[in-house]
Amino acid sequence: MKKYKVGFTTGVFDLFHVGHLNLLERCKKQCEYLIVAVCGDDYVTQVKKKNPVYSEEERIRIIGALKCVDEVSSISLAEIDDKMLALERFKFDVLFSGDDWKGSERYKKTEEQFSGLGVSIEYLPYTQGISTTQIKEELKSKE
Ligand code: CTP
Which of 43, 55, 94, 111 could form a disulfide with 120 if both were Cys (CB 3.0 to 4.6 A apart)? Predict the structure, then answer.
């Protein structure tokens, strides 16, 4: 029996790499059923101010093919910003995130919203030394 029944996490997951895989496998170790919501191209361009390499549709297909993922979905800008909206739709027991988000305004707000609702937030260790941004930079420097 795992610690949680339904777990939820969200991210862009562009240029899928081992840091992403570590995170998703660690999520699945703690929950019976893992839902992953993939941020849309609008979030990447408008909020992250970057251009995704893989489209939202491709990123959803890749995440959905992983054996540690039980359900994949898209997620709106409003649901990314306000995790109460995500909670209403996905009805999870735990929200997982890499610990690079700990202490951010968005997650501090979410901690306040979830306290008293019986919904947990678990920060999982961020894999050092790899990120989508880093991969893009390395490719650029090798050109
Ligand atoms: N993540 C992680 N370890 C990494 C990279 C990402 O644990 N090395 C986690 C993030 O904390 C987040 C999820 O994976 O919970 C999705 O992260 P995402 O922003 O899509 O990946 P990054 O590689 O960090 O992308 P970028 O460089 O564009 O910020």
Answer: 94
Q: What is the DSSP secondary-structure string of 21-80?
A: HHHHHHHHHHEEEEEEEEEPHHHHHHTS----SS-HHHHHHHHHT-TT-SEEEEE-HHHH
pLDDT tens digits, 37-46: 999 999 999 9
Read off the tokens for 128.
């050092």
CA distance 121 to 119: 7
pTM of the full structure: 0.96
Domain made up of 4-141: CATH architecture = 3-Layer(aba) Sandwich (3.40)
CA angle 80, 40, 19 (to 5 degrees): 80
Going from the Cα of 17 to the center of ligand 1, the distance in angstroms, rounded, reads 9
pLDDT band for position 143 (cuts 50, 70, 90): confident
Phi, psi angles (nearest 5°) of residue 10: -140, 150
Is residue 120 within 8 A of residue 95, CB to CB? The reply is: yes
Mean of pLDDT values over 6-21: 98
Mutate to test the pocket of ligand 1, among 68, 95, 132, 138 (most ligand atoms within 8 A of CB): 132
